[in-house]
Amino acid sequence: MDKFRMMFQFLQSNQESFMNGICGIMALASAQMYSAFEFSCPCMPEYNYIYGIGLLIIPSIWFFLLGFVLNNNVSVLAEEWKRPTGKRIKDPTILRYMFCSITQRSLIAPAVWVSVTLMDGKSFLCAFSINLDIDKFGNYSLMTGMSEVEKMKLLARIPCKDLFEHHEIRVAASRYIKCISQACGWMFLLMMTFAAFLIRAIRPCFTQAAFLKTKYWSHYIDIERKMFDETCKEHAKSFAKVCIHQYFENISGEMRSFHNHHSSNDDTDKEEEDKRSDEEKLLGIRAQEDMNKVLWNWHTCKPALALRKDEMNGEYKGILNGEANGAANGFVKGHTPAVEKREWAVYYSKV
């Protein structure tokens, strides 16, 4: 159990590796689902095309949407898009980067499904068997004297072994359509690979600073949300512990004094330390109305991304360092409050 917990914590800390693993599992699942899927063409002119193309497209859309559902960054993207501006400006480039990253990962499983389906050729045969010119495969007298409706019904039965009597014609027609389907599958793989190559090759041609900026702040938004959730959990745990502790103190004071009298000093000191640590974790928020106000303010007006450091190793050393190293630290001069200058007088003694 500890090994699974450590693995889960590792995957949570490495969000990108976790999502890549999810995409790989979905790709394998799509291929496995197709191999386990029982293909049964209706062999009817009015339903063959719908069934064949639907088998190619609908599962792909389902895998694409499932990729969005399993990606945790979707909620982060939606929250960042819909939140009020407040003190923090919303950058559309960051939202676009997050959306493109989610979309790229979600396209892996649908691409695998389409590739496997086209390589197999059954859905392609079911969809386009009615468009065949059966005279190309021999036995020219087979369709003589038939009406157009009868010809369509006969061609629609080619994917079905039990319904089409002429075995040689069915095998030849099946191989012909499957060959075209596999050619389309290889063209699809070539196009997807070429598109991925272009994305990889063209990206360095643009400004890397803008790309690094969007990547950094997208990671920051994800990490900030996780840390806020963890802080809320810790605060809720400490709040509940202190509240229950105070409840039992008020209700059963005599019982508590009796237990404290018989317990050892080490246990008492440990309880006091735990109580102080829980009090510190409350961060001064000790009422339900105050916590609701904090959560509301976090949603409506997140703090600005400009950190202040007024003191460092002295009363004004931090401010002086902030002004001197403003360019290196990424802070502008206006982010630190102005410090009132003092006059100093130095006296020298000749004694």
TrEMBL record:
Localization per record: Membrane
Domain of life the protein comes from: Eukaryota
Keyword Transport found: yes
Transmembrane segments: 21-37, 49-70, 183-202
GO biological process, one term: ATP export
Chain positions covered by the region annotation Disordered: 258-279
InterPro entries membership: CALHM
Gene Ontology cellular component terms for the protein in this record: plasma membrane
Keywords, alphabetical: Ion channel, Ion transport, Membrane, Transmembrane, Transmembrane helix, Transport
Range of residues in the leader sequence: none
Basic and acidic residues biased stretches: 263-279
Its membrane topology: Multi-pass membrane protein
Family: Belongs to the CALHM family.
Record's protein name: Calcium homeostasis modulator protein 1
